[in-house]
Design goal:
It is a single chain. The protein is of the alpha/beta class. The chain is built from 16 helices and 9 strands. The strands form 2 sheets. Strands 3-2-1-4-5-6 form a 6-stranded parallel beta sheet, sandwiched between helices. The protein has a 3-stranded mixed beta sheet with strand order 7-8-9. The longest helix is centred in the middle third of the chain and has 29 residues. The relative contact order is 0.10.
Length: 297
């Protein structure tokens, strides 16, 4: 009998993840507020659910991929939410990026209701979700992760156990600190090269071969040079993740001077109506600070 997986949140990351589960042979029942995404999910072979509760009633493993802490809490605990439909012994795999503190609170409440939680935030952008090559950072019970490893491997290639509940979210916060730092650093370098009159493609090619080599240079710099900020990951989500990182730094007493700079730059993107651009679009804020409205071309 084909195992049923529930999926709530068929957005830019969730929909391709659900499709990869379908391609791996799982039966997937999904829910999403946006009807076009739900229709696309159905065309791929998924079973649309009319309510959130219906998802949990029809699958002992439910995956959520949602924008923030509040939306995860609402989906679980609201009237007609997952908790009303969960069976005893069910597992919730939360692939959202949310507050580690909220994750621990949710895990405790679910445990009291006979449901287990694995916090499993993801990294790799839309490309990784489509290709099934996501990096997944997991917190919770290690034995439970082992039991569901085949599910995880349908969505990602690097699945890392990070520790107790909330540890996956801490790992994701660390990931986002470095991602944002790369985006800002590459933006500063590209803008300097532009204002100095250097050939941008040549500069990027040269520095990509040495110690400055990083994911952002390889995967985003060419589009940044063209002024193409098509989202693989929304800037407003990057800002939300940096808020989580800064809050975690405050909670644990960890200094975050560089992260605070990135935090303010991404806040400026959101406030300037650029939140739906890709997170590489932070270059635009630096251009504004430099007194130019021209893209880096």
């Amino acid at each position: 009998m084909t195992q049923s997986i529930g999926f709530v949140g068929l957005g830019i990351m969730g929909l391709p993840m659900a499709k990869n589960l379908l391609n791996s042979g799982y039966s997937v029942i999904g829910y999403n507020r946006s009807k076009p995404r739900l229709q696309e999910f159905a065309k791929a072979g998924g079973t649309p659910a009319k309510t959130i509760k219906e998802v949990a009633e029809n699958a002992q493993i439910v995956i959520t991929c949602l924008p923030n802490s509040q939306s995860v809490s609402d989906v679980i605990f609201q009237k007609g939410g997952l908790l009303e439909g969960f069976q005893n012994g069910s597992t919730l795999i939360d692939c959202s990026t949310i507050s580690p503190k909220t994750t621990v609170e949710i895990a405790e409440k679910l445990t009291n209701s006979g449901v287990s939680l694995l916090d499993a935030p993801i990294s790799g952008g839309e490309e990784g979700a489509i290709n099934g090559s996501l990096s997944i950072m997991v917190g919770g019970d290690s034995d439970l992760l082992s039991q569901h490893m085949d599910v995880f491997k349908s969505m990602g290639t690097t699945i890392t156990y990070c520790g107790k509940s909330g540890a996956g979210q801490i790992a994701k916060a660390c990931n986002q600190i470095i991602v944002a730092s790369q985006m800002v650093g590459v933006s500063e370098a590209v803008l300097l090269a532009k204002k100095a009159g250097a050939d941008l493609d040549s500069v990027v090619s040269a520095i990509s071969q040495g110690a400055a080599s990083c994911w952002t240079l390889t995967n985003r710099a060419p589009d940044m040079i063209k002024g193409d900020f098509t989202p693989g990951f929304f800037a407003e989500y990057q800002y939300k993740d940096l808020c989580i990182a800064v809050d975690s730094g405050r909670e644990f007493g960890s200094p975050m001077p560089q992260t605070m700079v990135a935090h303010e730059l991404y806040k400026s993107m959101v406030e300037n109506g650029m939140g739906k651009d890709g997170n590489s679009g932070v270059l635009q804020i630096l251009e504004l600070l430099a007194g130019t409205t021209n893209r880096a071309i």
